[in-house]
Design brief:
Layout: E1 2-8, H1 31-42, E2 49-52, H2 56-66, E3 71-72, H3 89-94, H4 96-103, H5 116-123, H6 136-139, E4 149-154, H7 156-166, E5 184-189
Parallel strand pairs: 1-4, 2-3, 2-4
Antiparallel strand pairs: 1-5
Length: 191
């Protein structure tokens, strides 16, 4: 059975409490130390394909893990927080829409951004049946050969959606699944 390895990017060079989704934030100065456990956790695994979010915090890690042989896929970007990008979460929460969004993040879009369901639709077969053949899972992962090992370097939100889908647990709070920086999550997929 094919395996997918989902890897979250390492720590980033931004203050704690800042909202960053599609903002192209650099890895932290500790990058060379942060990648050691990731490399160790993936040693001796041959990857047939390495796919990365196009954001620098993922591409830099994918470059090392793949020895330069990887592709990027825009569908692997983090949630687009729109007008909230690079604002503090405290400032966002202070707005009436911010409070409303925090309680309804699944369906409400961020101002000039996307909702969690929008992100799901670009990643997995979901509510929007018009996007069934354009989501990442159907387009890339469901076509894996049984012996494939696929490495995906991406973001916490993306990993949470894919993990819930692969575990067949679509309902529930998306944030109940911990995805620390530099973490590796391995699953069997139907190929």
């Amino acid at each position: 059975m094919a395996k997918i390895y989902l890897v979250r990017h390492t720590q980033v060079d931004i203050e704690q409490g800042i909202c960053y989704g599609v903002s192209d934030v650099e890895p932290a100065a500790t990058f060379n130390d942060d990648i050691i456990p990731v490399i160790s956790g993936l040693k001796n695994i041959h990857f047939n394909r390495v796919i990365s979010s196009p954001l620098i915090r993922c591409k830099k890690l994918a470059q090392i893990l793949s020895k330069g042989e990887f592709i990027t896929d825009n569908r692997l970007k983090e949630l687009d927080f729109g007008d909230w990008e690079l604002k503090t979460w405290n400032d966002i929460y202070e707005t009436s829409y911010g409070k409303l969004w925090m309680e309804n993040y699944l369906t409400l879009p961020c101002p000039n951004g996307e909702s969690y369901i929008d992100m799901e639709n670009r990643l997995i077969p979901g509510i929007d049946k018009t996007k069934i053949n354009t989501n990442f899972y159907t387009d890339i992962l469901s076509k894996a050969k049984p012996s494939d090992n696929i490495l995906v370097v991406t973001h916490a939100g993306v990993i949470r959606i894919l993990v819930r889908f692969l575990n067949k647990k679509i309902d529930g709070n998306a944030f109940n699944y911990a995805v620390p920086h530099g973490s590796v999550h391995c699953f069997d997929i139907n190929g």
